């Protein structure tokens, strides 16, 4: 009689994780362009501008710039100009860097969640491999017992 009843065949992703060939969790920075020179330059420049504009200091500077034109908008006594100032000068100019700051915080949190999930999945994988080893050891013991019982019964 065979020592095992079940032949464990690990999933290809499990095998890749165990051998260290599987990549780690995807991070926000991994999404940058890696293609041709033009794509890499655009990615680099866009990131640099985002890092500069996406600060609260830039938000404060934009607020100061917007406030400079407020007296002119009020003096015009024209509702259209005042609404245009609020929508284009104030809201768009100030909310842009603040939204980028919030997105950067959310991206960092997403990276931390991805890393924690990856570590949890890695731990579960290793526990499952240990369970398979335990079951294999039990199969051997049970196989030996069956062989002894068969010998005893005959």
Topology (elements, then pairings):
Elements: H1 12-18, H2 37-53, H3 56-75, H4 79-153
Continuous helix count: 4
Parts with pLDDT < 50 across at least 5 consecutive residues: none
Q: What structural category arises from helix and sheet content?
A: mainly alpha
Largest sheet: none
Would you report the number of β strands? 0
Keywords:
154 residues; mainly alpha; 0% strand
Account of the 3D structure:
- With 154 residues, the protein is mainly alpha-helical.
- It has one domain.
- Helix content is 77%, strand content 0%.
- It has four helices and no strands.
- Helix 3 runs antiparallel to helix 4 (79-153).
- The longest helix has 75 residues, at 79-153.
- It is rod-shaped, with a radius of gyration of 31 Å.
- The relative contact order is 0.13.
- The mean pLDDT is 87.
Question: Brief overview, please?
Answer:
This protein is mainly α. The chain is 77% helix and 0% strand.
